[in-house]
């Protein structure tokens, strides 16, 4: 049966703001090189990244990890969705922003990104070229320089290749003291409630135009949630029939955790003829980030 064969990978590259400091140390340089080699080896047609950073220096030049990623993976099409920036969220408690001020950076930003070997289509007309959109899922009243008040967004795009699948990448909230060894029960509950709200906002966005029309959708990212958490097991899987692509080598995708928090989902299940999924484990992955990539090969009909 005719369809689209697609390799999808998702990875939180974590700590990306350290990559482009003016005088990177050897560890940071080694980590950046490991990331480029890893992306090349993953050889994904569609790459979804979280915690990507870039800045504009004192001379107005944009220094972005996007360029290195595109070159390493052979991507002709990419989109950066800003979640946090000096320009919008300047906060003296955020070290990289203070550093940027005294290095005369015009701006510094961090966010999600999508990299593709196929062009992007308009969201409402798949036959015409378009660009993805950056959608806010959580905007705190005041940014305090900690992850408790980190804004959260999702990138919504569409590939200009039959059957014109939609793609979403996102990075959901996690709060200070949610995880061991200093986990506080109230923080755990608050974190799960926050992620539930963010997933519900995402579902509200796509309910009519994607889910209601049975359009193929790839949803990938760092959910900061295990597969048995309410926002995944109930909202995505049980109530809205998303298929979580199960890795053939189940295990954690972030050090210190027992279960994976990085996932790839597909909707609707009947339009996925076949798939395989794995967590890319190895020294190269561990040198590139404190997360491990999740990779899936899909045959979409």
Description:
The chain is an alpha+beta fold. It contains seven helices and 13 strands. The protein has helices at 26-42, 65-73, 86-89, 95-102, 185-211, 230-238, 283-288, and strands at 4-12, 46-56, 62-64, 77-85, 107-116, 133-138, 152-158, 166-171, 217-222, 243-244, 262-267, 272-279, 294-300. Strands 1, 2, 3, 4, 5, 12 and 13 form a seven-stranded mixed beta sheet that branches. Strands 6-7-8-9-11-10 form a six-stranded mixed beta sheet, covered by helices on one side. Helix 1 packs parallel to helix 2 and helix 5 runs parallel beside helix 6. The longest helix is centred in the middle third of the chain and has 27 residues, at 185-211. It is globular. The model is unreliable at 16-24 (pLDDT under 50).
């Amino acid at each position: 049966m005719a369809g689209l064969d697609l390799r999808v990978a998702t990875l939180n590259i974590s700590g990306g703001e350290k990559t482009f400091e003016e005088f990177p140390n050897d560890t940071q340089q080694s980590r950046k090189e490991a990331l480029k080699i890893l992306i090349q080896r993953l050889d994904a047609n569609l790459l979804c990244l979280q915690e990507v950073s870039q800045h504009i220096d004192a001379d107005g030049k944009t220094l972005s990890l996007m360029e290195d990623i595109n070159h390493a993976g052979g991507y002709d099409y990419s989109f950066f969705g800003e979640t946090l920036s000096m320009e919008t969220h300047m906060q003296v408690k955020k070290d990289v922003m203070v550093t940027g001020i005294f290095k005369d950076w015009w701006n510094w930003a961090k966010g999600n990104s999508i990299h593709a070997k196929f062009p992007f289509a308009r969201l409402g007309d798949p036959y015409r070229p378009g660009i993805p959109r950056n959608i806010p899922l959580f905007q705190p009243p005041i940014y305090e320089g900690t992850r408790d008040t980190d804004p959260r967004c999702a990138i919504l795009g569409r590939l200009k290749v039959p059957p014109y699948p939609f793609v979403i990448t996102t990075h959901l909230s996690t709060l200070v003291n949610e995880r061991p060894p200093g986990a506080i029960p109230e923080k755990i509950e608050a974190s799960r409630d926050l992620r539930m709200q963010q997933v519900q906002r995402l579902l509200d966005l796509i309910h009519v135009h994607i889910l209601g029309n049975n359009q193929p959708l790839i949803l990938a990212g760092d959910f900061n949630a295990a597969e048995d958490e309410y926002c995944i097991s109930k909202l995505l899987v049980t109530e809205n029939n998303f298929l979580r692509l199960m890795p053939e080598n189940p295990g954690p995708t972030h050090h210190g955790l027992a279960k994976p928090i990085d996932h790839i989902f597909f909707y609707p299940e009947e339009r996925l003829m076949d798939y395989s999924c794995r967590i890319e484990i190895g020294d190269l992955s561990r040198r590139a980030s404190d997360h491990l990539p999740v990779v899936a090969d899909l045959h979409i009909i």
